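Researcher: Sit down with what I've pasted below and flag anything odd:
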Amino acid sequence: MIGPAPADLHDVDWANSLVPGDFCDLPEPVRLTDGVATATSRTWGTVRVRSGRNVTYGDTDGDQRDEAALHVGCDDNGATMSGQLAVGYVVLSRLGDSLAVLGTITPRQKQTGSYGIGLTQVDFAPGRITVHERWHRPTDPRCCPTGESTTVWTREGNRLVPGEPRVVS
């Protein structure tokens, strides 16, 4: 549990919320301010965490209340040209009166190029969330990843379990 939850997650001010940082190897959650925070990653040192505006909603447990998938990312705060270090979707639900993390969705496709994998879309369905990934093949230019895959994350109780990625192009 990361705090109190409104009756409808559509009412959360995600740009100023507390989010878990496991996608960026942060030891504890971070508080976003206008969608940004600075934190210390166990892997990369000082990082900038960004989020707050790209949220997808859907009902995975059939309770007629939406869960939320908040797109998050961390970068090296401009230290290098290709500063993106990690991306993910934090999936949150209302459990009782609390906001709870069901899990953090991270890329599952094995990287074959020299650039990071992007998560481009999440689709909610009963008991699962399908995530669309774009990735660079070894000969792809930075602008234009040609690899596409999907991974189905299954909801098991109050947690998410990833399936194997499936290459679709």
